[in-house]
């Protein structure tokens, strides 16, 4: 029998999700031993398994610890496993902190081939952790606030928020070749200066407290990073109530020197004017992904002045990025879910023409879209759904999380069946009151597995709807959604 190729064996191991099954495979077959161990140790979230392979380890007050000095033979045994670790994330508990000091005396990193670390900021700042983990193979670091975010949301004193400065400073000094940096829920006053030392960054994602630390100096620095491919910036404002996380980022006027030369993915929470400023400072037809988040505080009803100040001229800005990025843009996300449904009606009425104009601009100018998600108020109609299907023949994912809109008819699905041959996922509100055999037969050629969520209605009506679908579209699976408004449905097309 011909031996299996190593790559094929690795694919088989990757396809086994149950860790116990993978371990059994490693222990029962020499052929699968090494690939299976590579898979099992690729990512760890605690030091516990490391100590389990050491005979010198024991327990103290319920935590794993070292009760004897580690012998040279045990070190070799440990490195047999740690050289397979590529990703480290979590709080690394439950182990006694003195264990970290033991590992820090090593002359070489404990994880010599590690590529990604995701830790709490306080834990990462421990010198013993830094000396044990940081390797010249490290490519990605994610720092997460060690403080309670729910408590922080109620405080206005920024001195209480987690300071990422010491951790980023150490990274800039020891890992200047870092490619990805993620910072979640904290602050870092020195960030603009420290980023200048990380000139190899390809991905920078910041989700930090207080827009006070996201000023012009930061954006000027980010603007000049030569290899940056992905940028995501959102800020958290203490003045907003808990649950409303995103605050608009104020974009200063940039310098005219070229920047963002390699940026292809942009995820930004800002006003239309801020987005316009960013687009003015990057090359045309370069973005493949744009996420434009719009956050609205609860019970906020805008005046005309606030409309211009906070959002700017939405259709004009949409026209700008359609013109500048129409060739390259494949994925577009507009809006966000960080606003209160209570004021959606007011917003829809106030911005009605803006939303409609913006949607028409997107439909007319971005025929190459493969993924589109819309999370803002919009009046859906069957005619608009038909235009969408015709405008985006290459669309793969389409999600319309529209609010305060009447659901569209089931017959509207026929437009996607006719024009969108690559569609794998579709979410759109549908009417269920008028579902009939005739309406379903019109979309019968839409022969793909799908899940259709419908509102909680009387049991007899639910059974009738299910029978109707099963008779005409047997590949449809119905799901009852209790909190959905009766008379509408949520249609989701899944990959077959």
From TrEMBL:
Name of the protein in its database record: F-box domain-containing protein
Species for this entry: Dendrothele bispora (strain CBS 962.96)
């Amino acid at each position: 029998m011909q031996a299996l190729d190593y790559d094929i064996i690795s694919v088989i191991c990757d396809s086994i999700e149950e860790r116990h099954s993978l371990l059994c495979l490693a222990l029962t077959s020499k052929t699968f031993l090494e690939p299976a161990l590579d898979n099992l140790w690729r990512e760890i979230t605690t030091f516990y398994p490391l100590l389990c392979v050491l005979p010198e380890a024991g327990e103290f007050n319920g935590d794993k610890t070292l009760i004897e000095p580690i012998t040279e033979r045990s070190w070799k045994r440990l490195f047999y496993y740690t050289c397979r670790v590529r990703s480290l994330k979590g709080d690394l508990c439950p182990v006694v902190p003195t264990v970290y000091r033991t590992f820090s005396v090593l002359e070489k990193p404990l994880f010599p081939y590690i590529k990604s670390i995701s830790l709490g900021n306080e834990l990462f700042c421990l010198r013993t952790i830094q000396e044990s983990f940081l390797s010249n193979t490290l490519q990605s670091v994610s720092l997460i606030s060690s403080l309670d975010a729910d408590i922080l949301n109620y405080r206005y004193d920024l001195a209480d928020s987690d300071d990422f400065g010491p951790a980023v400073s150490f990274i800039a000094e020891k890992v200047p070749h870092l490619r990805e940096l993620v910072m979640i829920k904290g602050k870092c006053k020195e960030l603009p200066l420290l980023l200048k030392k990380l000139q190899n960054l390809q991905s920078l994602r910041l989700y930090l407290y207080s827009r006070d630390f996201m000023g012009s100096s930061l954006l000027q620095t980010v603007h000049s990073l030569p290899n940056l491919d992905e940028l995501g910036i959102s800020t958290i404002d203490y003045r907003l109530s808990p649950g409303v996380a995103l605050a608009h980022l104020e974009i200063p006027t940039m310098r005219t020197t070229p920047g963002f030369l390699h940026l292809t993915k942009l995820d930004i929470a800002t006003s239309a004017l801020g987005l316009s400023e960013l687009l003015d400072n990057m090359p045309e037809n370069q973005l493949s992904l744009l996420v434009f988040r719009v956050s609205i505080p609860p019970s906020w009803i805008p005046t005309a002045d606030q409309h211009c100040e906070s959002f700017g001229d939405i259709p004009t800005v949409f026209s700008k990025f359609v013109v500048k990025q129409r060739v390259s843009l494949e994925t577009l996300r507009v809006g966000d879910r960080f606003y209160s449904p209570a004021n959606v009606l007011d917003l829809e009425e106030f911005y009605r023409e803006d939303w409609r104009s913006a949607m028409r601009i997107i439909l007319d100018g971005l025929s190459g879209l493969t993924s589109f998600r819309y999370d803002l108020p919009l009046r859906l109609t069957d005619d608009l759904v038909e235009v969408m299907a015709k405008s985006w023949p290459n669309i793969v994912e389409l999600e319309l999380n529209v609010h305060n809109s009447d659901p569209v008819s089931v017959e509207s699905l026929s437009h996607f069946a006719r024009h969108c041959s690559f569609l794998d996922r579709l979410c759109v509100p549908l009417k269920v009151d008028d579902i009939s055999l005739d309406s379903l037969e019109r979309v019968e050629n839409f022969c793909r597995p799908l899940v259709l969520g419908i509102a909680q209605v009387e049991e007899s009506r639910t059974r009738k709807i299910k029978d109707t679908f099963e008779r005409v579209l047997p590949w449809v699976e119905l799901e009852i959604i209790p909190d959905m408004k009766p008379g509408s449905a949520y249609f989701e097309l899944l990959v077959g």
